[in-house]
Specification:
Layout: E1 11-20, E2 26-31, E3 37-38, E4 41-43, H1 50-62, E5 69-74, E6 79-82, E7 98-108, E8 126-132, H2 146-157, H3 163-176
Parallel strand pairs: 1-7
Antiparallel strand pairs: 1-4, 2-3, 2-8, 5-7, 6-7
């Protein structure tokens, strides 16, 4: 399985990043050469703690450095998802189950032009990005990740919104059934 770190249950330690702007909209990145949109995320390397991995992944995927963001909160526990067999590399089957993630909520302190998708990594993760309503991305997340996204957004929303606001925003998102295919990506 190469250098991939797995826990005793077959989960790869990973971090997820919910980056918000002053309007509490989330950074939503379009994966390179795909029509898939997601939050920045990535594996924790041997010797890193989750916060170190988060800052490394933030830079690799957005070009942002610690001075461009404020760390607001993180999930209390690991959130797990299983990856369907058809998505698992053949050589990993039987060992790898999925990912366990610590999610971080960050506030953007810099300006949009600080985001440089091609600056931080050898192979960029994203080729476009937008600011999106806090809850709307749930409907466009690949199915096997939806529960983790929902859990992370719900837990971390409490640091940005009142309980009433969370309920209203979530019901508006669910009732609208709106597509989250972004209309005007920023590059």
């Amino acid at each position: 399985m190469g250098c991939i770190m797995l826990d005793e249950f077959g989960y790869r330690p990973n971090v997820g990043i919910i980056l918000v702007n002053d309007s509490n909209q989330v950074f939503w990145g379009k994966r390179v050469r795909e029509q898939a949109w997601q939050f920045p995320q990535g594996g924790i390397k041997r010797g890193e703690d989750p916060e170190q991995a988060m800052y490394r992944e933030l830079f690799e995927e957005t070009g942002l450095r610690p001075e461009h963001v404020e760390l607001i909160a993180r999930t209390k526990d690991w959130l797990h998802y299983d990856v369907p067999d058809r998505w698992i590399r053949r050589e990993w089957r039987g060992h790898y189950r999925g990912q366990k993630q610590i999610w971080f909520l960050l506030r953007m302190l810099g300006v949009d032009s600080d985001i440089e998708l091609k600056s931080g990594a050898e192979r960029p993760e994203f080729d476009a990005w937008i600011w999106h309503d806090f809850f709307v991305p749930l409907s466009s997340v690949i199915e096997f990740k939806r529960d983790v996204y929902r859990l992370a957004l719900n837990e971390l929303a409490a640091y940005l919104f009142s309980p009433e606001e969370v309920s209203t925003r979530l019901s508006r998102c669910i009732s609208s059934g709106s597509s989250t295919k972004p209309s005007s990506p920023s590059i």
